[in-house]
Amino acid sequence: MPNPFNETDEQAKARKGRSLAIALGLVVFIILIFVVSIVNMGGAIANRPL
């Protein structure tokens, strides 16, 4: 596949690495927000009335 951005293989590899790091950081942030939310609700969340 031709390179539409006219970047070298080294630049493409660096871009992919940055993209992967950003994606991983986003996943970690989402998990952190989820865990903080669950902790903030406390243990009584499982004992709520139906």
UniProtKB/TrEMBL annotation:
Transmembrane domains' residue ranges: 20-46
Alphabetic keyword roster: Cell projection, Cilium, Flagellum, Membrane, Transmembrane, Transmembrane helix
Name of protein: Flagellar basal body-associated protein FliL
